[in-house]
Every structure is written in structure tokens, then in C-alpha cells.
């Protein structure tokens, strides 16, 4: 739950702004809701950091062989997920840059 709250808080602030901007909700309500969402990310992120800060250190000597193998496996999977996420994000940015507002930005013609 903490991980989800950490990951949802900051993007939720942007979604809240997008939804609030096009609605009739009072302007006074925008700030407190945004601070709650941003605070959710900061507080939950700090809790996660304090709980996990020394558990995945590569120099950790107190782990047995099985725990070291699990840690190494998690590192590999984590980097694969990050690689896929970065690739998808770059593809989206590229598509938006090329097809952004309906006009063609890149062409073969001079």
C-alpha cells in the first residue's frame, strides 16, 4: 500500500489539476488537495526509504547465500523493468514530439 501511495501521490496531483481546471470546483480547494497528494508521496517515500535503506546494499555481509541470490535476482528484474519503462517513456515522448498537435514535424521533403 505504501508503494502505491508513493507512486500515485505526485502524478495524482497533476491529474487533480487537470480535472480541477475543467470543472467548477472552487479555486480554494485546489491547493489543499494538491498538498495532500504531494505530502502523500513525500511521507510514504520517506517511510519506504527508512524501512529499506540497508536491506539491499551490495556490501551487506549479514545475508546468507539464499538471501544474496534473491537480492541479486531482484536487482536484475528491477533493472529490466526500469529499462522497459524508460524505453516506453522515450517512445511516447518521441511520438508526441512527432505527432503532437496534428501537424507533421518531421518529413523527408526539403
Radius of gyration: 21 Å
Task: Note the total helix count.
Answer: 3
Number of strands: 0
Relative helix content:
over 70%
Gross morphology: flat
Please outline what is shown here.
With 110 residues, the protein is mostly helical. It is built from three helices and no strands.
Description:
This protein has 110 residues and is mainly alpha-helical. 74% of the residues lie in helices and 0% in strands. The protein is built from 3 helices and no strands. α1 (2-21) runs antiparallel to α2 (27-52). The longest helix is centred in the C-terminal third of the chain and has 35 residues, at 65-99. The model has no long low-confidence stretch (mean pLDDT 80).
Question: Which terms summarize this structure?
Answer:
110 residues; mainly alpha
Indicate the topology.
Blueprint: H1 2-21, H2 27-52, H3 65-99
